[in-house]
Specification:
Blueprint: E1 2-8, E2 11-17, H1 22-41, H2 44-48, H3 61-73, H4 81-95, E3 101-105, E4 108-112, E5 117-121, E6 131-135, E7 142-147, E8 162-167, H5 170-183, H6 189-199, E9 204-211, E10 214-219, E11 223-226
Antiparallel strand pairs: 1-2, 2-3, 3-4, 4-7, 5-6, 6-11, 7-8, 8-9, 9-10
Helix pairs in contact: 1-4, 3-5, 4-5, 5-6
Length: about 230
């Protein structure tokens, strides 16, 4: 098992798998980026919209998946881009025979695992920190995506230190994490609970939001464990 960082333009993804599958992930990331770049070249609204957009029936699959996830989560389609790239790269590895693979594109992770994996939650300046979610082996793909109003460069209209969504649909997890981050605007327990309810959509398995010293959860959340978070690994 090996972990390698794949850098293609704005995409910086960490791929963990048997060495033979990493070039497959790299190739698929490049291929899907080409589809995206070609599509938005003539449709700048897709790149900049903060609201759902309809797309053509013959649009590339990644475009249709992003648009569908965005519509369900009530966000712009680019809110699902990192999760989409992670999912498509993982799918390519699985088609090639990969049984244990993880693609982490920033805070948006797609994985299919045959042994336990702890996914750390980076919370930046929050007093709640060094937490992870322990995932047990199970069949199929799982997406764990994170948005933040205090960490990273992604646009957020809220002030959550970490807004996490879990789903079998990685595109949906990414879009829903953005929606949760947008909804988390004030450090009050009742308002964080409301943010979870507002961002919840069918297809999400669990959500978690952290704001400084407060944490709220909804749905099924894996075991929460202590784990040291090294920002250099993100």
């Amino acid at each position: 098992m090996r972990t390698e960082v794949v850098r293609i333009k704005e995409t910086i993804a960490s791929v963990t798998a048997e060495e033979a599958f990493i070039p497959i992930a790299r190739q698929e990331i490049g291929r899907q980026r080409e589809f995206l770049e070609e599509y938005v070249r003539g449709r700048p609204a897709f790149l900049h919209s903060l609201e759902p957009l309809a797309v053509e029936e013959d649009a590339p699959e990644i475009i249709r998946r992003m648009a569908e996830a965005a519509a369900r989560a009530h966000v712009g389609p680019m809110a699902a881009v990192a999760g989409a790239i992670s999912e498509f790269a993982l799918r390519a590895m699985i088609r090639a025979g990969c049984e244990h693979g993880i693609v982490a594109n920033g805070g948006d992770i797609a994985m299919s695992i045959v042994k336990p994996v702890i996914v750390g939650i980076f919370t930046g300046p929050a007093r709640i920190r060094d937490l992870g979610l322990k995932f047990k082996p199970e069949s199929g793909t799982i997406g764990i995506c994170t948005s933040s109003g205090t960490v990273g460069h992604s646009l957020s209209f809220g002030c959550a230190d970490a807004a996490v969504a879990i789903s079998r649909d990685v595109c949906l997890a990414d879009a829903a994490a953005t929606a949760l981050g947008n909804a988390a605007k004030a450090k009050e327990p009742g308002l964080l609970e409301q943010a979870l309810n507002d961002a919840w959509v069918s297809g999400i398995e669990g959500m978690l939001v952290i704001m400084d010293d407060l944490m709220a959860m909804k749905g099924h959340i894996p075991e929460i464990v202590r784990t040291r978070m090294d920002p250099a690994l993100i």
